[in-house]
Amino acid sequence: EKIQTLVIEENVLMRYFGYASLSIETAGYGPGAETGSASAVPLAKRADLLELARNVEAFGELEFERPAPKARRRYTFRYGIAVTALLGVGLGVSQLLTPIPWYGLVVLYAFVPFAARKKWQHRGWGLPDGYIVTRNGFWRRQTHVVPNIRVQTIIDRRTIFQRRWHLGTLIVDTASSGGFVSQGPQAIDIDEEETEKLRETVSSRLLGALGIKLDADTYSAEESA
Description:
By secondary structure, the chain is of the alpha+beta class. It has 7 helices and 9 strands; from the N terminus they run βαββαααββββαββαα.
């Protein structure tokens, strides 16, 4: 009853060999109760680990919607700027301190599209029956599985850079996470319209899990408020 979120974690090597780890985030009850994450399975075959995780929470197949295609272009642009800045630093060091072959860093531009594609591929979100799942990270990929009834706050966040691309991030806050500062469940870089739809869907699922039914007029009034 204290379980808030299941976290399936895989680094690059673990994914290559088909392994993963499982952590269970919990929340205590009452004053002074502890909230935290405990490692349930430090290392196991991914298929066996998912079977165990489904014995804890009966979520379905992990299928993900990826971020908006323009998010991939955003990542390419961002990494291109980073390489350009690195070239500038190399040039400055070569001119002011000691000569170095800074121009060799130009080869990094060739890896920019690859890095952007990998970042885009390993992000996503899904809505299996009774749950919301999110996935983020390439070097250390984390998949969060959150039961609908454990959702406490739904945060629609849009940075100034995301607004330029008409993108948004939906943060699913539970009793074991920390909202804006948390690395918890987040659907990152999805279209603005999709962000709003996802927020409404998660909200209605939470109300349904709590046994609360709102008619269309009531829901519209609450949205306006």
